[in-house]
Amino acid sequence: MPVVKGVSIATSLMALVVLSGSASAQTVARVPLASPLAVMPGAARAVLVTGFNPSAGPNGEPFFGFLARSGGGAARIEALGFSSRPFDVSADPTSVADPSVAFSRCPVQVVRDQPGCSIFTVRAGREQPVPALVTQTPELAEDRLPAIYGGAVAFARFGVGTAPAVLMHRPTETRPLGRVPGGPAGVGQAGPTGLALRGPRLAYVWRWNPRPRAVRFSLRIHDLRRHRTRTLVTLEDSSHSLLGPAWDGSSLVFARRAGDAVRWWRYAPSSGRVSTARAPRAMSSFAVGRSSWYTLSVPRGTTCSTQRLCSVTERRAPRFQRSSLAEMRAG
Asked: Quick one: CA torsion of 279, 72, 9, 37, rounded to 10 degrees?
């Protein structure tokens, strides 16, 4: 288990979820990069986002850690070991008593025949690599974008060259990994930009290039029991993009961005009900919590940096209005 300045990941997670705070919209962190967000389960509101420490690696080199903040607590770097790139992180909404997360970690120094980016889980205070991943060399694969639910883990394996990424799923710690169908290959490297897992449903946004300089996004739901995949939305406009997805209870939430204009969409697979709400301008990532949602915004044409920090905002859950599947697909 990695320890940074005497703080273990298990201790960090347990301390994190006992904090509390107000429900008003507020900036909870400022970060130097646009990174994924995750909300810890439970009554307390806690958000995890990648932070950057410029001089705290094992040999003084820069590294990424977790910037954790909950309610009225102060933002701080938590211990998840050193990584040369931002963490992808997912929190298990079913693990209220024992916080459980899955995350990717990349080596600070890439060494041949040593693991590249790999997926790790923390459950019941123990950090473990997902089996059969740590033997992968950097040239063969990078495992990123984990999603965790009830102990099951899904993630994306990115290879080299133009081969499309491969979606992987492990139902339990004792079951082997299996492949999940992805989206179109196109030209160049295709793959997911986000995954969300809930029970037998794995949702993902797939990005590919049907031809050079043309970009497409599609939102898909794969039924892991029936082995069926349904495409909900496909964007034909290269200037539009899809954000997410995330599960809000049994409903799937994603966002559609056109320039700086963004809208949330919510879809219930069991009933087919669709609703929509206005999202913050320039939103680039979000996380759904029990009572609070978190957003990170990056205006078009700008980037986050140590000189230009981007804000992570905690806000009340949006008010959705009834819509239709046709309107959701049209945007």
From this structure: 10
Secondary structure (DSSP) of 17-72: TT-----S-EEEEEESS---EEEE-SSS-EEEEEEEETT-STTS--EEEEEEE-TT
Helix (H) or strand (E) holding 146: strand 142-149
> If residue 211 lies in a helix (H) or strand (E), which one and from where to where?
strand 201-211
Residue 181 to residue 168: CA distance in whole angstroms? 9
Which among 166, 220, 193 has a CA at the least distance from the CA of 35?
193
Q: Report the candidate in 145, 135, 42 with the shortest Cα–Cα distance to residue 90.
A: 145
Helices then strands, counting H and E runs in the chain, come out as: 2, 27
pLDDT band at 208 (very low <50, low <70, confident <90, very high): very high
How far is Cα 296 from Cα 195, in angstroms, rounded to an integer?
17
Smallest CA-to-CA distance from 295 within 303, 307, 284 is with: 284
pLDDT of 49 above 80: no
